[in-house]
Design brief:
Largest sheet: 5 strands, mixed
Structural class: alpha+beta
Bound molecules: glutathione
Radius of gyration: 15 Å
Shape: globular
Order of helices and strands: HEHHEHEEEH
Number of strands: 5
Strand order of the largest sheet: 2-1-3-5-4
Oligomer: single chain
Distance between the termini: 24 Å
Strand content: 15-25%
């Protein structure tokens, strides 16, 4: 186990029992999708795919992070239920409640999250024992 992992403070809230909410969760767009505003082509999200690449390169992340892929079309109700209508842009990292969120996390209700892709990649390095994005 890395030093970095041991240093992460544990703050488990007693009233939340599902294991998923203890983990960091990443919500991505589906690997391919249609955009009704740009018909006749299929698309992928370059931001989500940076994260897909890192997940594929460092497979131990699969046991540490919950990954949810969602359709492109709005409303993205799964994310709206967690972060509200104004924060449904993807990708997004929602911090698990077993560790402290970083100081720069945004807050929606009782959730802490980051939506900037580069910062998500840095946080995977900070919190989940992978190399840093160069
Ligand atoms: N927050 C991201 C950008 C995310 C982004 O623009 N995602 C696109 C998908 S490729 C998107 O969701 N666009 C349209 C929409 O949200 O409906 C970043 O700058 O790192």
């Amino acid at each position: 186990m890395s030093k970095q992992h041991l240093d992460v403070p544990k703050i488990v809230r007693q009233n939340e029992s599902s294991s998923d909410v203890h983990k960091d969760r990443i919500f991505l767009l589906d690997r391919e999708f249609d955009d009704p505003k740009l018909p006749s082509k299929r698309y992928f999200c370059p931001y989500s795919n940076q994260i897909e690449g890192v997940l594929a390169s460092f497979p131990h992340l699969q046991s540490r992070i919950e990954v949810v892929r969602l359709p492109f079309r709005r409303p993205r109700q799964t994310v709206i239920d967690l972060l509200g209508e104004d924060n449904q842009g993807l990708p997004v990292l929602i911090f698990g409640n077993s560790t402290l969120p970083p100081d720069d996390a945004k807050v929606a209700g009782n959730q802490h999250f980051i939506a900037d892709t580069r910062r998500i990649l840095e946080l995977l390095a900070e919190r989940h024992d992978i190399p840093w994005p160069h």
